[in-house]
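Duplicate of #3305? Posting structure anyway:
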């Protein structure tokens, strides 16, 4: 990678070079030192590492890249000692020795900032003297080097909440620096698959691992075996799941009931002697061994309890029970939807139009089947930026909910949300019958669409008029023809929150703002393609995915900010060279 020369004017980029960032970072570090903090509970003598911040010189290659990768510049700018107080509540005085949490946090950040999508590869370089020496120096490692168990315990111990608080601090820092404005925010999510195989059932739960079977179930399985069935199965024991599957398959024209396959056998020639499988299965199902033909068990999800009770395990239950199944458009066939068993990462992006810069400012993780619109307000509360009057917030149709419009307008923001028709009838006849189109524009009595005549911010309403664009003959016959602007109708936000707002839906101005939603898509694509390098994280469980998503978002924020500052510095160098 080589630095790029920015096309922005010298006046715009002048405050954002490396020297200015170093000055601002020094001020932030000084404030953190002067701010009272929660002391770390373990005595320093019991730390296996001691993180210490020291200003370090930074060298650059001929292409403008940092010698020692971006983590070296990050470590020379920011003092992460204050993170001990952030992580202090997750540690106790008891227990043995531990690594300094500031050291572990820096290593976590360095791995993502330097684009180690594979944690094993980062650990391999960390233990090497040549490639790991700079990480040892920056993280304060002296004798011991944390292994993957130490890092995993750190992630599980602190969770995502602590990382979210650190993300908020850096977002506010870059807002103070000027890279983030908070005037145009856009939110979008994408599905991340769990490290487990989806086996076809979207309704799994903890109970699927231990299904109690009654005597009637034994008899039914025995009857299937007596009838020569090679695969023994029972109806799913959860009535609500049976109902959902029946309804879903009926809509597709192939109604069926969900079956739980429990056992598969292979029948042997009658002349072959009966082995241990034959006797075990006869005992398990309470059958006479003489009545069973010789057979061999291919696979089995049945087991017998200590008191002779029979238990089953559904073969379709995945190893990650916290993940859920969501849908997204198949990349290979946009007309189809692809099932993803995992989690939904939501990110809010700040788009600085003056600098043409996009920065992530908040992150949340939910199960894949969660409705993004239902999670929006909870996620929006995590955005640390103060609300800007008339600030624009952009969402896709999944967020087209009245509560979201009302909350954004309550804070004097402007919601730009794609219209989600759901099951509404939008034929021309249906629209005329209800009195307004999908953009909220009302129809005049003659059937023509009205035009906006301005928005009243105090009343939070918009006035529509017909404008008398009909022929003079019609104007004479129209009861509104003598008015200056003809027919008029006022529509308020209180009555039509999804349609009425400061910027009229469907206008070029609205479309221009909605186009900014692609900023969130690019931030999510950057996370997938650049940070993760197209390989989903090998994780299971909501807590693990929440931590991973939060720290990747923080790493992307730092990468984008530092790279932009380096591009500014490189561009200024080019400009200075051109003047001399």
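Output from current build:
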């Amino acid at each position: 990678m080589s630095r790029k020369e920015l096309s922005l004017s010298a006046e715009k980029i002048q405050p954002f070079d490396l020297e200015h960032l170093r000055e601002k970072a020094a001020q932030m570090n000084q404030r953190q030192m002067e701010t009272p903090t929660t002391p770390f509970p373990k005595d320093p003598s019991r730390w296996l590492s001691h993180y210490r911040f020291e200003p370090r010189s930074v060298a650059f290659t001929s292409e403008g890249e940092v010698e020692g990768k971006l983590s070296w510049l990050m470590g020379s700018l920011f003092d992460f000692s204050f993170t001990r107080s952030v992580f202090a509540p997750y540690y106790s005085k008891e227990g043995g020795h531990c690594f300094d949490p500031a050291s572990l946090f820096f290593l976590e950040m360095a791995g993502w900032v330097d684009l180690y999508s594979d944690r094993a590869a980062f650990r391999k370089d960390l233990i090497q003297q040549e490639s790991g020496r700079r990480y040892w120096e920056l993280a304060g490692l002296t004798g011991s080097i944390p292994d993957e168990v130490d890092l995993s315990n750190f992630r599980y111990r602190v969770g995502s909440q602590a990382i979210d608080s650190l993300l908020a601090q850096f977002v506010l820092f870059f807002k103070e620096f000027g890279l983030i404005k908070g005037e145009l925010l856009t939110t979008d999510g994408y599905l991340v698959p769990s490290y487990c195989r989806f086996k076809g059932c979207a309704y799994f739960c903890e109970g699927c691992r231990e299904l109690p079977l009654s005597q009637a179930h034994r008899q039914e399985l025995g009857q299937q075996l007596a009838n020569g069935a090679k695969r023994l199965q029972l109806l799913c024991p959860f009535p609500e799941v049976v109902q959902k599957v029946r309804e879903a398959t009926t809509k597709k024209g192939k109604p069926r009931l969900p079956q739980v396959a429990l056992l598969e056998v292979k029948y042997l020639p009658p002349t072959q002697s009966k082995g241990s499988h034959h006797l075990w299965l006869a005992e398990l199902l309470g059958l006479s061994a003489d009545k069973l033909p010789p057979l061999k068990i291919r696979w089995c999800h049945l087991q017998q309890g200590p008191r002779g009770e029979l238990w089953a395990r559904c073969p379709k239950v995945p190893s990650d029970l916290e993940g859920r199944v969501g849908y997204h458009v198949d990349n290979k066939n946009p007309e189809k939807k692809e099932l993803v068993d995992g989690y939904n990462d939501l990110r809010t992006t700040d788009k600085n139009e003056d600098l043409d810069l996009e920065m992530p400012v908040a992150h949340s993780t939910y199960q894949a089947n969660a409705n993004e619109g239902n999670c929006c307000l909870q996620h929006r509360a995590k955005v640390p930026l103060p609300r800007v009057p008339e600030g624009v917030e952009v969402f896709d149709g999944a967020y087209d909910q009245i509560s979201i419009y009302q909350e954004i307008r309550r804070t004097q923001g402007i919601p730009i949300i794609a219209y989600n028709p759901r099951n509404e009838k939008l034929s021309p006849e249906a629209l005329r019958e209800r009195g307004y189109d999908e953009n909220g524009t009302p129809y005049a009595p003659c059937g023509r669409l009205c035009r906006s005549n301005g928005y009243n911010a105090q009343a939070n309403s918009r006035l529509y008029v017909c404008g008398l664009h009909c022929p003079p003959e019609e104007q004479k016959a129209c009861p509104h023809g003598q008015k200056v602007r003809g027919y008029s109708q006022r529509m308020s936000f209180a009555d039509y929150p999804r349609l009425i707002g400061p910027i009229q839906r469907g206008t070029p101005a609205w479309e221009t703002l909605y186009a900014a939603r692609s900023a969130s898509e690019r931030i999510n694509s950057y996370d997938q393609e650049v940070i993760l390098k197209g390989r989903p994280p090998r994780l299971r469980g909501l807590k693990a995915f929440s931590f991973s998503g939060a720290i990747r978002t923080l790493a992307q924020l730092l990468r984008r900010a530092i790279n932009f500052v380096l591009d500014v510095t490189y561009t200024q160098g080019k400009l200075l060279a051109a003047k001399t």
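Confirmed duplicate; merging threads. The two ends are 27 Å apart (CA to CA). The chain is about 40% helix and 15% strand.
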